[in-house]
C-alpha cells in the first residue's frame, strides 16, 4: 500500500540570522527517492535534520511515517528512520562489524544477520577485523551508510552519501538505493554533485536562498529498459544519467530512466547509436 512517509508542510527555518528554509512543501510516498541539490550552505543538511528530528521547524510541520516531528524528549524522534547525516562516532580501535553491533545494541535493535548483510551491501567485508582507524575515507563513508540501513528503515535520510566513493562504489550505491526503494523505503538524498543525484533519484530539487524548486518535471516520462546483460546495464548508466538498475524482468537485468523521447522506437534508435541493443523498452506516462 502506498502512503506518504515524509511530508514538509509549509516549513520555514532560520539559523542564526539566515533564513535557511522558506515555506518548503515536499512529500515522499512509499518507494520514492528524491534528491536535494544546492550550493554549500544552502540548507540541504537542515532539511534532512528536520526530517530526522535532530532539529525542529520554526513554522510549519514535518511529518514522518504518520507522526508529527515535535521538539522534546528522544521518544519524540521519528521511528523507523535510518540516517547518515552527521557521521556516527565510530570507535577507532573496533572493527566495522564491532562498531555497528555496538551501535545496534545502544539502539536496542540488534539483528546480527542484518548488520552483516548491510555491510555486504555497501561492499564491506564484515569478517575484515581491521580496526576502524585503518579504514580509508571511502570505507568510513560506506560504514556510515551501512549503519543507516542496518535496521531496515522505512525512511532513509542520506547527506552527501557518495562523497569520496569511486565509480564502482557509486554503482553499488545506486543498486542499493534502487533495491530499498523497490521494497518501499522512502529515500531523501542530498548532494552538491548534480550528475550524481540524477543517477539515484526519481525527482530532484534544488535549494537556493531558502526556496526548494523541482529540477525535473514530475510527470516526465519514465522508461523501463529490459537488457540482455549486465554489460548493457553498465553502458546505459554511462549514456543516460537518470538510468538506474531496478531488478530483473523475465531473468533479464532491467532498469528505469526518465527522458523526453517521443516513443519506444526513438529510445531504441538512440540506444542503437550507442551500441546498446535492448530486449524491450516500455514507456509509461
Ligand atoms: N547551528 C547553526 N547556527 C547558525 N547557523 C547555522 C547552524 N547550522 C547551520 N547553519 C547555517 O545554515 C546554513 C545552512 O546549513 P546546512 O548545513 O543546512 O547547509 P548545506 O546545504 O547542507 O551545506 P553543506 O553542503 O556545506 O553541508 C549555512 O549557512 C550554515 O552556516
**Number of separate strands:** 14
Number of helices: 8
Number of domains: 3
The whole-number mean of residue pLDDT values reads 89
Assigned CATH architecture of the largest domain? 3-Layer(aba) Sandwich
The biggest beta sheet is recorded as: 6 strands, mixed
How would you explain this protein's 3D organization?
The chain has 285 residues and is α/β, with parallel strands linked by helices. The protein has three domains: 146 residues, Rossmann fold; 67 residues; 63 residues, no CATH class. The strands form three sheets. A six-stranded mixed beta sheet has the order 6-7-8-3-9-10, sandwiched between helices. The longest helix has 16 residues. The protein binds adenosine-5'-triphosphate. Adenosine-5'-triphosphate binds next to strand 2 and helix 1. InterPro entries: AAA+_ATPase, ABC_transporter-like_ATP-bd, P-loop_NTPase. It comes from Paenibacillus oenotherae. Pfam families: ABC_tran (PF00005). Keywords: ATP-binding, Nucleotide-binding, Transport. GO terms for molecular function: ATP binding.
